[in-house]
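Weekly puzzle thread! Below is a chain. First person to post its structure in C-alpha cell form gets bragging rights.
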Amino acid sequence: MRLIAFTLQLVGDPSDEHLQSISDAAQRPDVAVLAEDAGVTLIGPADSIVDAAVAGAHVGREDGAKIRCRVDCVGDASEEAGEVAQDVATRFQEGLAAAAGQPATRPMTELPSMDPYDSAQLILHALSQPTPTPGGGSAAALAGATGAALVAMVAGVTVASDRYADVREEMERVRDRALLLRDELHALVKTDADAYKRFMEAQRLPADTEEETEARREAVSKTAMFASETPLEVMRRCLTVVELAARLVRRGNRAAATDAVVGAQLAAAAARAAWSNVRVNLPAVKDLAMRAHLSGEAGTLGRQAKEAEIHALRASEVEKR
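Winning reply:
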C-alpha cells in the first residue's frame, strides 16, 4: 500500500492550541498525525489522507490561518508516485471547497465575446508603462499562467482523441488541474502588483522619531514578507505546471507534444523569474528564521522546476525516436 505524507503548513507563528485543533480534526484510524513547529503532517493511505487533510485545513481556515500544503509519496520518488501526489492535491482542493460550503472551484472555460489577441494587449500595455507595478513578479505569474494554459490545451486535445481513450480519465484530471492553475496564476498577476505597492508604501512612511522609525521598520518587514510570499506562490504552482507538462509529453497526444514542452519551458522560466523576486525582497524581512525558511523553500522549488523541465525535454527527445 502506498503511503501519502500530507503537510499542512501554517504561515506565521501558529499557537499550540491552533495546531492541536487541526490535529484533532484530522484524526483518522489509519492516519498518523504529527504536530510540528509550524504545521501538521499526516501519513496514511490516499483516500483517508484526503479526508483528514480537508478536515484539518477546514478547521485551520475557520481560525483565520493561511495554510500551505505539500503532498509526497513516502519513500517513493518515481514518476507514478508524483502523479498520485498530484491527484491527491486536486482531490484535496475539491474537498476543501465543499467543506467550506462553496461549489467546487471551477476554472474559467468561457470568455465574453472578444478578440483574445486584442485583450492580451491590456496586460502587455500595463507591463510596458514606466511605473513600478505591474513588474517582473506579475510578468512571471503571467508566463506561468500561459504555460498552464498550454498544458490544459494539450490535455484537452488528448481527451478528444479516440486514440488515447485508455488515458482519457487521467487526461481529464490533468486538464482540469491545469485550468485551475492557469486561473490561480492569472490572479497572482494582480496580487503581486498589489503586494509590491504595499511594500513601497511602507518604505515611504515617516521616520522622524524613534517610534516612527520602528513602526516603519516593522511595516517594511511585514510587507516584504508578503511581497516574498506572493512569488513563492507563483513558484509552487509553476512547479506543478512543469510536472503536468512532463507527464503530457510521455502520455499525451504526440501531435501536441511540442506544445507540452513549451508549456514546461514557460512555467520553468516563470519559476526562475519568481525566484529572483523572492531573493530581492527577502533582505527587508526582519525575522531571520522566516527569511531563511522562505529562501530555502524558494531554492528547493527552483531546483525542482529545473529538474522537471529537463525531464520533459528528455522525454520529448525519446518520443521523437
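Puzzle host: Confirmed. Bonus trivia for everyone else. Residues 116-320 form a domain with the Four Helix Bundle (Hemerythrin (Met), subunit A) fold (CATH 1.20.120.680).
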